[in-house]
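Example record used in the benchmark description.
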Amino acid sequence: AVVSTQSAHYGRGMELGRTEKIKNSLNPSFAESIPVIFKFEEQQNIRLRVFDLDDPGQSIGMADFLGELEMTLGQVISSKSITRSLVHPRFKECGTVTLTAMEVGGSHEIACLKFEGVGLDKKDFLGKSDPYYEIARQNTDGTFVTVYRSETIQCTLNPRWRQQEISVKRLCQNLPDQPILFSCYDHDDDGSHDFIGYFTLTLAQLRDRNATATSWELINPKKQKKKEKSTDCDSALIPLL
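Model output (structure tokens):
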């Protein structure tokens, strides 16, 4: 997705940023955020265009255009989260896009996170998985928005991911008791990533290592239902390093 603005501050049609590319997905959840300076005294028109890139080195001009939408930045900020339909000159139904806005000024605190997985579920044919994890912040309406996606570690049930620095404002809006959602998946090239499990915790729990567990069980509702809370549940643990 490419975001641009036509406000007087930026000039007509100036590109503000692009999200990461998500491979083989019709329901992508982009983790890359795009900073925008909000001006109360002027109307800033935001234009979002979505493209299908077949090759990492392909230019936007050569990519397939999937649709676009236009709105003001003020509409996004006042709504916190807003969903609109994409518009295409040739097609009537092109799907929807949800934009979420958050003020990022006023705090410079950084959280350093590093995780490893232990005994993750086997999802691939050869008895291993290609795991990665996502972190999602809770919105005021109770929904979650992805703020970070880790790298994928190939062919392992015991991955160790790189350390990641993320602003506390982006992680939990500076609210130490606000739930943070951690989800783990097995990456598949066709985009049908297999869900391994999830857990939630707060920044306060992350900070207080002595008062909380240093590992969290990955919860998979389907497995829990099948095993009916059996004591031999093999859900994985992800310790915090």
